[in-house]
C-alpha cells in the first residue's frame, strides 16, 4: 500500500480538494483506495456521503474516531488532515504515510504559516533524511498575477520539490458538491488533468518504485 498524507496547518489551502481528487484518481485507475479523514469538519467523509453509487469506489475511514484504522487489501490510502495540526500529531500521522503533499496558496499569510511549519517538521527524521518527501503544491494559481509571482519566489527557496501548480478553477467546488472530482469526468477535464494533476499523480506513484512497496 502507498499512503499519502495531505497536510498543512493553514486552513483553506486546498487539502480536502487535493485529497478527494487524488483518491478519485487512484480509484478511477482501478486501485483499491481509502480516504482517511482526520478533521473535525469531516470534509472528506461528507464528500464521500455525496458520492454517487456508480462512481469509482472509495472507502471512507473516520480517523477522528479510530486513527490508524485500515482495511485489508488497500492499494492506496489518502489521509486528509484538518487545519491547525501541531507538529507532534503530524509526526504520528507521518508514521502511517510514505509521503506528504502540502498545498500552499498565493498569499503572504499562507506562505508564512507554511514556511514556519516546514521549519518545525524538518527536524523530524523521515523528513530531514528525505525518506518521506514533502511534495509542495502551489494551489489556486492565477497566471500573470503578482500573488502568483510572489508564491513562485517563495517556492523557489522552499527546499522541497514543487511538484505541481494547480490553477484556480470553479470545477473543483462544482464537482465536489456532487461527491465527484475532476477524475470522475476525465473527458471534460482532460486539459487540467494533463497539465496540473499528472505531475502530482506521477510523483506519488514514483514513491512506489522508489521504496519497492508491493501493492
Ligand atoms: N484549485 C482550486 N481552484 C478553485 N477553488 C479551489 C481550489 N482549491 C481549493 N479550492 C476551494 O477552496 C476552498 C477551500 O478548499 P479545501 O476545503 O480543499 O481546503 P482545506 O485546506 O481542506 O481547508 P481546511 O483547512 O478547512 O480543511 C473550497 O471551497 C475549495 O473548493
Ligand atoms: Mg479540509
3D structure, described in words:
The protein has 215 residues and is an alpha/beta fold. The protein has one domain (2-211): 3-Layer(aba) Sandwich (Rossmann fold). Helices cover 40% and strands 20% of the residues. It has eight helices and seven strands. It has helices at 15-28, 43-50, 87-94, 108-121, 125-128, 146-156, 171-176, 190-211, and strands at 2-6, 33-38, 58-62, 76-81, 99-104, 134-141, 162-167. The protein has a seven-stranded parallel sheet with strand order 3-2-4-1-5-6-7, sandwiched between helices. Strand 6 (134-141), helix 6 and strand 7 form a beta-alpha-beta unit. The model has no long low-confidence stretch (mean pLDDT 96). Bound molecules: adenosine-5'-triphosphate and magnesium ion (MG). Magnesium ion (MG) is lined by residues 15-16, 39, 43, 80.
Shape summary:
globular
Number of domains: 1
Order of helices and strands: EHEHEEHEHHEHEHH
CATH superfamily: P-loop containing nucleotide triphosphate hydrolases
Bound molecules: adenosine-5'-triphosphate, magnesium ion
Broad CATH class? Alpha Beta
CATH level 3 topology: Rossmann fold
User: Count of helical segments?
Assistant: 8
Distance between the ends: 5 Å
Mean pLDDT: 96
What kind of assembly state do the chains in view correspond to?
A: single chain
Low-confidence stretches: none
